[in-house]
């Protein structure tokens, strides 16, 4: 799905920014003499890294819901934090686990890289001691060993070819001077150049290693959780829309555009498991989505009329087998495993062997009531935040919104509620009562204002509302249809 991908792209961008700050702080602290373990712990604390990343993950999840329901929400509903996958973990536990894993990955990657660094430092010290000790004989005997060790280590530093050649040249130079028994001053200059080149290599090595640790190894953990949880939240929002919609009876499984590997999703999209057609599932029998980590498949609602003449039946085993029969041997093995593929052939149910197949059906964690609750909360906060409204007026607006929602199941936005409260009465004014408003609301929409906005226009009163969440945006008194309205 294009837009779920966009959520992840945004997350990756934000992670990159926070990761850069963290990397710089780790290097700074390491250079101040802290151990890797301490530098990483302190840098995470100093830069507030985990909080920033958690906030970004939660943001991605929230955007996922909004994408699913086609409306904006103010808070992440608590239900979205509830366990849903095989791990049975609450979101906060998952986030905490991710923090631990990210820290470990950073420390591990750096420790590995810094081992090379330490060895280089030791030789650097030996060289330095060499020409300060005054013991020219020992110095010159040991030097070739140090240098050959250095050549080995320098291969592990992230040097460019040009720099490697330069390092090699300096090493040869130093060696030649020892061999030729040249006076100490040029030899010392040679050492100094060598050490300088090594330090440059070390700095670069530390920087690259830190980048890989933070931007690749650790990011993988955060990105996986952002991707999977926001996909799940998307489906929660999407399904909540249709939970009470009786005209939608089934869903068609759609593969995401970038779906490189042949897996369970191909079967879901290609097999006729319920006699309704390929990839079509009755509303209450949709497999768990996302079907596996990084799964970006989505659903398409199917209306009653589209399935006319078809009757739901349990065709799971048969439909699955028919689909599997169309696969190449390699594809079968990817889906069922090498042994599994043989077992299924000899009669074992494909559902017992297919990787990532789940018997758990998709159910939205968001009920309609909860959604309505979060929309109302948003409207209340919009009203509370009006700077130029008097306190008593705000109270009146909020209680009117509450009243309409409770009594008539009509959600008035901040704008619509003023239209109702602040009606001008008097000569030539068209006044509308609560009763009149409700009776218009109970009729069919007859115009479309824009892609997502519908209009119920009767008796010179137009109720304009969002098609997705049914929030009333405005109530307008007018004579005649607006030119921009489209008849429906
Ligand atoms: Zn999938």
Automatic annotation (TrEMBL):
Name used for this protein in its record: Phage Mu protein F like protein
Organism: Veillonella criceti
Lineage summary: Bacteria, Bacillati, Bacillota, Negativicutes, Veillonellales
Domain of life, per lineage: Bacteria
